[in-house]
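Agenda item 2: copper (II) ion complex prediction
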Amino acid sequence: MADFDTLISNGHIIDGTGEKRFLSNLIIHNDKIISLFHPSKKQISIRNKNYLIKDLRFKRKIDAQFHIIAPGFIDVHTHDDQNVFDDPSMSCKISQGVTTCIVGNCGISLAPFNFSGNVPAPIPLLGKKEVFKYARVRDYRDNFIKNPSSINVALLTGHSMLRVQAMNGDYNRAANNEEIKTMQDLLHKAMKDGSIGLSTGLAYPAASSAPTEEIIELAKVLKEYNGIFTTHMRNEGDNLINSVKETIKIGEVSGVRTVISHHKCAGRTNWGKSKKSLKLIENAKNNQHLDLDCYPYTASSTMLLKDFIARADKVLVTWSDKVKDLKVNDINNIAEEFDCSVDDVVDKLYPAGAIYFQMDDDDLNRILKFNGSMIGSDGLPGDKHPHPRLWGTFPRVLGKYSREMQLFSLEEAIFKMTGKSAATFGLEKRGFIKEGYFADIVIIDEQNVIDNATYEKPLIPSSGIEQVFTNGQLVWKNLKAKLNFPGKFLEGKKFN
Ligand code: ZN
Ligand code: CU
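Presented output:
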């Protein structure tokens, strides 16, 4: 006799490599996948010991009934830095099958930050002043280890946080050499503390004055740790192509693995530019590690900012700190109600949040389909009325874009949210269904998986995500969080 934790039988395993599914049983023990074997087998070997199947006992047996078993999804683009503490069940993500979140994107991260002055946009997206209490990444890490969530977390260090600290709040200019040195020192510490890399938000006030050279000097630090560089580029509209070129240059000169965040073509006049941007990226891939992530919607969401309004077809204002009881409404209607200009509305409501309808389906499809593009939700958990991507991204890619539109196979869709992501971000022993790998697992009803969150009702869980395991523990079943918190702080692989 031998005792193990969990047997999942009769699953069609899609293992995260992009390869075709195969029928298999799977054994989980502690936090690992310890065996994969065909249901017809009578005898198996586990860690080089032979067992008869009939002699094995399990604490839990699950019949997958020929549904899909996949690696837990990795949301490579999140702003869940504080959400993992506010709602440790992380229902918005585990309900989609997500078991790992990369936090600290778009240049903003809760750590490292030691600054008491006013903060520029988009830093307030992460929360109110009191949540910024981690002078070092290790403080954030230790707090997560003490107060874990249902999902794993890996942290990017936000360039804007380094900037605001090093420049003592005077961020509307290029950093001088001394300030760059201060940022580099902070980044060295962050990487030693377990950050996996650096993110920028060059389109936002906090960082838009940073010249390319400033970013290159910081990216060079990453090289020493084999960290990753992710970027919300300087421009995703009229200057998209120049921004892609700038990103390629940063990656090329620094020699650092680079990811373009939420790649898109914003604004009608820029629709179609993804043909050129993806060509540039594809060519650059021959010489450097360059990847991208995207979310499956044609509207974006961030703070309510004047520059962002002009290029959108339609802007929904979703929250305001100044007008607490604001109803979600089109900015033009609010302007009419207030009897003022759209710019005045921004001044009256700021800080505030918005959803911008500004992308084209053809660009979106092309970017989603692009070889090796990864899925990241960019969800904003702090919003009372968030963009539906927070609750819907992953099932939407599986249900709408793979099953219904057949943009790519289910195997490829899953590769874009698991194996590809783990390999790119250096998450060791995750992202694949393999013996010896962590048991981050999702069971999916392939015929019914679909997002249900909408722009009107964004907080509705998806269908077809049946059971989810993080590090071997059940965290989601039958549309309910199990309130287990096995999530780990992931430090990423040090490649060298
Ligand atoms: Zn962003
Ligand atoms: Cu983002």
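Discussion summary: The longest helix spans residues 177-192.
Owner for follow-up: CH.
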